[in-house]
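User: Hello! I'm new to structural biology and keep hearing that structure can be predicted from sequence alone. Could you demonstrate with Alpha amylase, catalytic domain protein? Please show me the input and the output so I can see what each looks like.

Assistant: Of course. The first part below is the input, the amino acid sequence of Alpha amylase, catalytic domain protein. The second part is the output, the predicted structure written as tokens.
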Amino acid sequence: MMTSFNREPLPDAVRTNGASPNPWWSNAVVYQIYPRSFQDTNGDGFGDLKGITSRLDYLADLGVDVLWLSPVYRSPQDDNGYDISDYRDIDPLFGTLDDMDELLAEAHKRGLKIVMDLVVNHTSDEHAWFEASKDKDDPHADWYWWRPARPGHEPGTPGAEPNQWGSYFGGSAWEYCPERGEYYLHQFSKKQPDLNWENPAVRRAVYDMMNWWLDRGIDGFRMDVITLISKRTDANGRLPGETGSELQDLPVGEEGYSNPNPFCADGPRQDEFLAEMRREVFDGRDGFLTVGEAPGITAERNEHITDPANGELDMLFLFEHMGVDQTPESKWDDKPWTPADLETKLAEQQDAIARHGWASLFLDNHDQPRVVSRWGDDTSKTGRIRSAKALALLLHMHRGTPYVYQGEELGMTNAHFTSLDQYRDLESINAYHQRVEETGIRTSETMMRSLARYGRDNARTPMQWDDSTYAGFTMPDAPVEPWIAVNPNHTEINAADEIDDPDSVYSFHKRLIALRHTDPVVAAGDYRRVETGNDRIIAFTRTLDERTILTVINLSPTQAAPAGELETMPDGTILIANTDDPVGNLKTTGTLGPWEAFAMETDPE
């Protein structure tokens, strides 16, 4: 049953994603919770479901509509829960199924929906399906991507892997299993074997599990790397680079492996699988939300997959804008970038869904560093607050559904770790060992700088609720420390200080969320990029009927003067700004201050 919200839906006369009537989520805001770092109630150093329930009033007051939970299923926690060993149970680290039912009930009382993370490209190697799959005579034998050793090589020895693919977490993407005498594919950790979606029994089991959760009361799924489920094979079912395959693999890179992504992302049966899922799980249900994490998906493909006429997903997370400061070869290597480059990527996503489909808007999540440290300024209080607000305006004023990651509404920053033993993230630790110790392509000093800038643990430090010893994440006298260190700046950045401060980052986010709820132009107005003549300034308009809202952001720590089209825009009324004295009329004032950002409704010409 659809959860009731304390807001008005968009009128059907306003076009959103092309559906009729408009979907309930078209003027909603989603808040992502990383459960192990949100709120600990039992003093074990890990957040839990009861902790989320205890903070629902905070989330309802912020104004968000949907809570997306990173995985809380039973798991060995090799990759912090993205390695699932039982889809129909809660890991004891987070609580019980009863705790989950209580969270659902209490969230629904407050008009909040709960969306769970769905990880079905792979399972844990401790899942019963995988254990059974080790037996070639078991019905589960073909549920994963099993392959024999390369002919002429001793199984389990270097060079015997079926092809040269590397794992995104470092090392080979193949792991030898002595019990079966074959290798299995894992695009991520060796404890995360890829499911074989070519097998109809696999898909049936996944759909049955999804229906089980929806029947229990959850409101939808965020689908982890869902665009990697269809692999490219030749006519005989061989992967690229396998002996006898008709498909040629890519060359190996500097780490000694080839890249599987072009052959695993957006594969030939991607649309078929997603449409089948929609029919088997969601048809006949109301009030749900589906969003897919979409590595390898272009903006144009986003339009197709999210077009309601095609019956696949409601929205996707695209990543081209998140790589604007990284080289294509490695997320750990910087490249020069400008705010104009960032808006170019965002504009491509916006333009692609101008007619059909929908966009997911995000700058932070559990896999990305804190955006205020990445693209803002965390070196001073003034710079941090102003740049956090500028980035919030960038997030919330585009067309689509904004996703706020826990602590983003406070302006939380990177952890600034300085030693490898402070990290907990498997990807970061493996990358250091492979790039520094195994291949020597990076020095320890330069790799540590890369981890401090881009490492995923930057987003995973405990939520900063107050200025107490452990930031209110757990009790100050807890018997054990949090699973990962609390950011020392929690004494300066925390919810307790910001909630009642009208000038705080929190209050700014709250106002932006309210604008999306109440202003159809913000929720669904057409997007158009405005040329600024300055690569540090981002500007765009949102237009609906006779109304236009202009957003202008100086995404830099220095003054910036606009030129060209931006100077010719009509004056208007400021709706929201991150400074006390916003420029407003660019034709007469001419210069934007550091990190200055505002949105104004322009006067009709």
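User: So the tokens describe the shape?

Assistant: Right, they're a compact way of writing down the 3D structure. Reading them back into a model, for example: The longest helix spans residues 200-216.
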